[in-house]
Design brief:
about 240 residues; about 30% strand; alpha/beta; five-stranded antiparallel beta sheet; LytTR_DNA-bd_dom; Rossmann fold; 2 domains
Length: about 240
């Protein structure tokens, strides 16, 4: 798998290179600090993945991703940024993942593993359905493969996490924080210490006590709370 890194901060670029070299077989074909240089390179060279900082000179990461989305063969885009507020836009651009700085080593390892699986599924003949957007959950002592887009919200219950779709509930034997670390941040937000919400399923944002919110999800009566400590990040993500 061939990749480039578009990142204008030397320290962040070196740290990311360290993780890529130690936890994957990805070949780094180039490093860039300027968005225009990135665009010129990918127009002339075929790559499989781009690690893309949002705040880079000339052409920012979001604009680059919009250009890349028009390519006949699109590389996987992994946004690397210190800002949460672009997560919704990244989701709309079908980014593979959205990694926040400062980097979390376990989060990077998990992302690289998923990336390798997605690449192998895409580039090798196989009757298996791609696991790119799938997740394994438990129900009645069986492992059920669920499309992430069908998840509405998740709730912490004692030492497990309960995962809700529109009409089913499943569970995973992980704390809600550990489970959240495996989910793409472009799609999901931990809005409360006990809740994760699928951003795309939010239908109404209802003001609540102490400047918090309750979230009404599409087609569901239950309202997911946004805790006071998460209100600021939530407002950035939802542009409110």
């Amino acid at each position: 798998m061939k990749a480039i890194i578009a990142e204008d901060e030397f320290t962040a670029r070196e740290e990311l290179k360290y993780f890529i070299k130690n936890y994957s077989s990805i070949e780094i074909e180039g490093e860039f600090e300027d968005g225009l240089d990135v665009l010129k390179f990918i127009q002339q060279n075929e790559i499989d993945v781009i690690f893309l900082d949002i705040n880079i000179p000339s052409i920012d990461g979001v604009m680059l991703a919009k250009n890349i989305s028009k390519f006949s063969k699109k590389p996987y885009i992994i946004f690397i940024t210190a800002y949460r507020e672009y997560a919704v836009e990244a989701f709309e651009l079908e980014a593979f993942d959205y990694i926040l700085k400062p980097y979390d080593e376990s989060r990077i390892k998990s992302m690289l593993k998923k990336l390798q699986m997605a690449y192998e599924e895409k580039n090798h003949s196989s009757p298996k359905k791609s696991m790119l957007n799938k997740i394994n959950l438990w129900k009645n002592d069986k492992i059920i493969v669920v499309d992430m887009d069908n998840i509405y919200y998740c709730c912490a219950k004692e030492r497990i996490t309960v995962v809700y779709t529109k009409d089913q509930e499943y569970f995973v034997n992980e704390s809600i924080s550990d489970f959240y670390s495996t989910l793409p941040k472009s799609k999901f937000f931990k809005c409360h210490r006990s809740y994760i919400v699928n951003i795309a399923k939010i239908k109404e944002i209802i003001p609540w006590f102490n400047n918090t919110y309750n979230l009404k999800l599409d087609g569901m009566e239950f309202q997911v709370p946004v805790s006071r400590s998460n209100v600021k990040e939530f407002r950035k993500i939802m542009n409110i």
